[in-house]
Specification:
This protein is an alpha/beta fold. It contains 20 helices and 9 strands. A 6-stranded mixed sheet has the order 1-3-4-5-2-6, sandwiched between helices. Helix 7 links the parallel strand 3 and strand 4. Helix 15 packs antiparallel against helix 16, helix 16 packs across helix 18 and helix 17 packs across helix 18. The structure holds adenosine-5'-triphosphate. The site of adenosine-5'-triphosphate (ATP) has 19 residues, from helix 6, helix 11 and helix 13.
Length: 493
């Protein structure tokens, strides 16, 4: 209705102006100004995700639904006592906890921990992402920050709760170091407003708000955000270890029909470096594979294939020609033989099925999770990477572009050796090294491994050839089969 009235008024104004033959230019400028103001004031306010009274039971989770992360859970629970026992905190004169930062790689369960925190403390859960605050218009972010805190209070009151957990994912976007963005004003104003709101939180408030931030780039956060009294506690949420991976797998397979013969520890061993999100995806993919094969239960082979799928991507229809297939088989067998020679029992699977960007690959299984590497271990990894190119040269007389990725990784490992002071250069700053010297040292490290691999595979040419033929034929060989062949070959020699 207001719209019709405005249109009518504008039409009347135009007729009057025409009647008096007045100039239109000031009017047009004025209208443009109004339009601009209207557009600015009408910037859409995002709807922040809230879990209030009705949805509470349905969406919040408890800490038992989070696998692994024992240290993070313990630290978080300690911090949450501030919310659970406000009276005691007040009596003891303890400064209330206002902010808690969850730091860790993507998919490790930071959002889950924040939701579990809301469940544990009986709080309303409101979540937003850092990117929702940043607009091209100065002042909008600050306005959203105010709205968000207000929303926490009103939701808690409506749900009859005394506390609210405000979860801000990607907090680095909102709380990045001030002055580092090109559009300083908007970013800085938003962060300033956020700090003002944080400072305004008190233990005597009607609704206690605890802000939980999550980031995987803590180094870019503004120091003001992390100072005592604001985000007091930093909880590290790391990739799960072997036990954690097994627990997470069990959690995500709980609602799926899994064969009793499945050894979850074995699957957990195969998934070094997987996050909780990867493991959830793995469980899902295994169920899809079982369904495709019309199997009523998920078998170990489905889970193992799902590992490959999560690491490398979906199987491709790409079909290399006979000659290329043979080269790929030779290449992958080379990697596998070097790996088994250096670390017996390390190869899990060798395949020439194209997946994602790879035409073939070997999957290794670390005997345990490693956090540190010695020079010998890094040299071994370089040797395994070079095994593909060396075997191509030995059996086919030349190399192909299929080794470029292996070489890139070998160079990165050589740099790691230099950086860690494990090379002949001793302890050096890699960025201050003359480029020529750096290059020569990398070459030296890689060449010595290449020579060693060359000698190793030259002594096993017959075995290399036999295994590669088998791989080219069958497309996939298991680590057990590989080891059996190696043992038989050694016995025959
Ligand atoms: P991001 O940093 O990308 O926002 P995040 O650390 O917040 O990720 P979540 O959103 O909590 O990760 O996890 C994504 C999904 O991964 C969850 O919904 C869950 O299915 C699974 N997941 C991650 N970690 C765990 C865990 N520790 N236990 C069980 N499931 C997990």
């Amino acid at each position: 209705m207001i719209r019709d009235l405005l249109i009518g008024l504008a039409a009347a104004l135009v007729i009057v102006l025409l009647w008096y033959q007045a100039s239109f230019i000031p009017m047009v400028l004025l209208a443009a100004l109004f339009l601009l103001l209207f557009r600015f004031s009408n910037v859409k306010t995002p709807r922040f995700n809230t879990i209030g009274k009705g949805q509470f039971k349905r969406k919040l989770i408890d800490f038992n639904q989070i696998g692994g992360q024992e240290v993070a859970k313990k630290e978080l629970l300690e911090a949450l006592d501030f919310v659970v026992q406000p009276q005691k905190i007040r009596e003891m004169g303890i400064r209330p906890l206002k902010g808690l930062m969850l730091v860790g790689p993507p998919g490790t369960g930071k959002t889950l921990l924040a939701k579990a925190a809301a469940g544990y403390t009986g709080s309303v859960f409101v979540s937003a992402a850092g990117s929702e605050f940043i607009e091209m218009y100065a002042g909008v972010g600050a306005q959203r920050v105010r709205q968000l805190f207000a929303q926490c209070r009103s939701k808690a009151k409506r749900a009859n709760k005394k506390s609210a957990i405000l979860f801000i994912d990607e907090i680095d976007i909102l709380g990045g170091k001030r002055g580092m963005h090109s559009s300083h004003l908007e970013y800085d104003q938003t962060l300033n407003q956020f700090l003002v709101e944080l400072d305004g939180l008190g233990s005597n408030d009607e609704v206690n708000i605890l802000v939980i931030g999550a980031t995987n780039r803590p180094e870019v956060l503004d120091a003001a955000l992390m100072r005592p009294g604001r985000f007091d506690r930093v909880v590290q949420v790391d990739l799960p270890d072997l036990e954690g991976r097994q627990q997470i797998l069990a959690l995500h397979l709980k609602n799926k029909p899994v064969a009793e013969s499945v050894d979850l520890e074995k699957i957990a061993k195969e998934t070094f470096g997987f996050s909780g999100a990867h493991l959830e995806n793995l469980a899902n993919e295994a169920a899809i594979l079982a369904m495709r094969e019309k199997e009523p239960r998920i078998l170990e082979k489905h889970l193992l294939e799902a590992v490959d799928k999560v690491i490398m991507g979906e199987k491709l229809n790409r079909k290399p020609g006979e000659e290329e297939r043979w080269r790929i088989a030779v290449h992958e067998t080379g990697h596998a033989l070097v790996s088994e020679s250096l670390k017996p029992g390390s190869v899990s699977i060798v395949t020439i099925t194209p997946r994602g960007k790879a035409l073939g690959y070997i999957r290794q299984q670390p005997e345990r999770d490693y956090y540190l590497y010695t020079r010998d271990q890094l040299d071994q990894q370089i040797a395994i990477l070079l095994g593909g190119a060396v075997s191509e040269k030995l059996l086919l007389g030349n190399r192909s572009t299929g080794s470029s990725n292996d070489f890139n990784q070998a160079v990165e490992l050589a740099k790691k050796i230099i950086c860690a002071g494990l090379s002949s250069l001793g302890v050096v700053s890699i960025k201050d090294l003359p480029r020529g010297l750096l290059h020569r040292t990398i070459q030296k490290i890689i060449n010595s491994q290449e020579q060693w691999v060359h000698q190793l595979l030259s002594r096993q040419l017959e075995l290399l050839n036999e295994l590669a033929r088998y791989l080219a034929d069958k497309e996939k060989i298991t680590g057990d089969f590989l080891r059996e062949k190696i043992t038989r070959h050694r016995e025959a020699c």
